[in-house]
């Protein structure tokens, strides 16, 4: 029972943190006014995509915490979550597209590092991060395009 309570806490923390940051840093008129590349997805895609990704991030973090609560993989997981939560306030809040690009590149690197760090011990957690890595790689390209166009 305690295992599932800890899973619930991971889900609430990650989903809740992501949703709160998303709500506080809504794109708004500034983002709407930016020149966007032709591959920019419609705004409605981001909410469902991030909700699913945050659930996967939470489950991978929970599994890692069960195996090694103070190990290197858990520290990397914490770094990626910090960078993830930092990106929206940097991009949408501070409107610092260049600095947000630096943050997202570091985020992508930490995601790949997390996958590599858990791959041999807990391949499931690694696979849970693969869609996240793909989405953040796409978001990195989008951030770079927005920087270039604006």
Automatic annotation (TrEMBL):
Localization terms from the record: Membrane
Main localization category: membrane
Keyword set includes Membrane: yes
Entry keyword Membrane: yes
Top-rank taxon: Bacteria
Cited InterPro entries: TspO/MBR-related_sf, TspO_MBR
Topology versus the membrane: Multi-pass membrane protein
Keywords on record: Membrane, Transmembrane, Transmembrane helix
Transmembrane segments: 7-32, 44-62, 74-92, 98-119, 126-149
Similarity comment text for this entry: Belongs to the TspO/BZRP family.
Protein name: TspO/MBR family protein
């Amino acid at each position: 029972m305690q295992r599932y309570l800890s899973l619930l806490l991971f889900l609430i923390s990650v989903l809740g943190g992501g949703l709160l940051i998303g709500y506080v840093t809504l794109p708004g008129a500034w983002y709407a006014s930016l020149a966007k590349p032709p591959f920019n997805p419609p705004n409605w895609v981001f909410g469902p995509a991030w909700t699913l990704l945050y659930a996967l991030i939470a489950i991978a973090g929970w599994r890692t915490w069960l195996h090694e609560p103070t190990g290197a993989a858990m520290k990397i997981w914490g770094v990626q979550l910090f960078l993830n939560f930092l990106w929206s306030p940097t991009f949408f809040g501070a409107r610092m597209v260049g600095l947000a690009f630096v943050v997202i590149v570091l985020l992508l690197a930490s995601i790949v590092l997390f996958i590599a760090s858990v791959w041999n011990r807990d391949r499931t957690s690694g696979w849970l991060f693969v869609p996240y890595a793909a989405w953040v790689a796409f978001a990195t390209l989008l951030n770079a395009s927005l920087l270039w166009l604006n």
